[in-house]
Design goal:
Distance between the termini: 74 Å
Radius of gyration: 23 Å
Structural class: mainly alpha
Strand content: under 5%
Largest sheet: 3 strands, mixed
Helix content: over 70%
Order of helices and strands: EHHHEHHHEHHHHH
Number of helices: 11
Strand order of the largest sheet: 2-1-3
Number of strands: 3
Length: 322
């Protein structure tokens, strides 16, 4: 990549949240804690779904995929920031920045589409319960996840290739804690008009489209629930989608809040702080929402740890026997 001044771009600088040295230890501890909780919590969800045969259903298949994506999106951004804080360096290589940006877009698109697929799954389960297993067969479930991966890979590849054609000059400071597409494009000293057009067009297409699908699914779900005569039946039907509805509200609420705050913010550091909500906080809270509000997940987790506790007790008793 040859920038305008004729020198080879080799690295960017991630400015992060604050340059104050006294805050670095606090930021490091806070993000390390959130990262470990995110990974551990989502791994528990995947373990619970894979180990309990009662959870081998389309809804929990999509949930385990969502947990996997949440682990990936956090692992793509937070570890590099923690390493930079620990080494007191802000450097990320040009290749590393493009790679991080590619995978962040990929996992963000996947998050979006899997939430949409989960809404469709709940729509079929509540509005067409008698045909649920016929419609949501394993082949369709696998195909929906595969298509989501393909679309995500194509979109992220397009944006990455568009960034590779840009030239960068002397200003290589990214006021963020990871290589965010918009921030990188704004640093270009060559014409980035086409990049901006594609960036905003894909944001509208991939944001409004899935959100419209989710809203349509839940409008049908709510009308079907209202048609159930008994209060107990309404509660049971609503409880099957309450966790997903909470996660959808959290995800789109934080994304919308970030864009509104970015428009109103006077500094890019404020935008970086706001983006923590959907890059770190939301993946961390998702396991809590599903484990606390879902009896099946709680039962599976109790079964896993109950078996381990029982096994340890038996081993200890055998060792104590003469």
């Amino acid at each position: 990549m040859e920038p305008g001044n004729g020198t080879q771009i080799s690295e960017f600088l991630l400015l992060g949240f604050s340059e104050a040295l006294e805050l670095q230890s606090l930021i490091f501890g806070l993000f390390l804690s959130m990262y470990l909780i995110t990974v551990f919590g989502n791994l528990l969800i995947i373990l619970a779904v894979s180990s309990d045969s009662h959870l081998h259903t389309p809804m929990y298949f999509f949930l385990s995929n969502l947990s996997l994506v949440d682990i990936c999106v956090t692992s793509n951004t937070v570890p590099k920031m923690l390493v930079n804080i620990q080494t007191q360096s802000k450097v990320i290589t040009y290749e590393g920045c493009i790679t991080q940006m590619y995978f962040f877009i990929l996992f963000a698109v996947l998050d979006n589409f899997i939430l949409t697929v989960m809404a469709y799954d709940r729509f079929v389960a509540i509005c067409h319960p008698l045909h649920y297993m016929v419609i949501m067969n394993p082949r369709l479930c696998g195909l929906l996840v595969l298509v989501s991966w393909i679309i995500g890979a194509m979109v992220s590849l397009l944006h990455s290739l568009m960034v590779l054609r840009l030239s960068f000059c002397s200003d290589l400071e990214i006021p963020h804690f990871f290589c965010e597409l918009k921030q990188v494009v704004q640093l270009a000293c060559s014409d980035n008009f086409l990049n901006n057009i594609i960036m905003y067009f894909s944001a509208v297409l991939l944001g409004v489209g899935p959100l419209a699908g989710i809203l349509y699914s839940y409008s049908k779900i709510i009308s079907s629930i209202c048609g159930i005569p008994s209060a107990q039946g309404k509660y049971k039907a609503f409880s099957t989608c309450a966790s997903h509805l909470s996660v959808v509200s959290l995800f789109y609420g934080t994304v919308l809040g970030v864009y509104l705050s970015s428009a109103a913010a006077q500094s890019s550091h404020s935008s970086a702080a706001a983006s923590v909500m959907y890059t770190v906080v939301t993946p961390m809270l998702n396991p809590f929402i599903y484990s606390l509000r879902n009896k099946d997940i709680k039962g599976a987790l109790k079964g896993i740890f109950g078996k381990k506790t029982t096994s340890r007790t038996i081993v200890l008793r055998l060792k104590m026997c003469p």
